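Worked example

This section walks through a single chain of length 73. The input is the sequence exactly as stored; nothing has been trimmed or padded.
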Amino acid sequence: MKVKRVEKCIVRKMGMDYYADMHIEIDGNTNVYTAHETAHQVKDLMLHSGLHIKDTLIHVEPYMDDQKCGKYI
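Given that input, the structure is written out below as tokens.
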């Protein structure tokens, strides 16, 4: 599964480590299982990035096409 866009990313520092909250957008027609797997892949990439990210929460949102502002597809 492909992440279409990072809608939001908030990072907090605690000691030498970082904690992140990220909202990713994927195709709105994706089934729950695939969306969940995509979130795990993103989390694993962040935790193993070498950036001292201790933990991260990944929120999955349906991709919002700029042409359909304010509407979920």
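What to look for: The longest strand covers residues 5-14.
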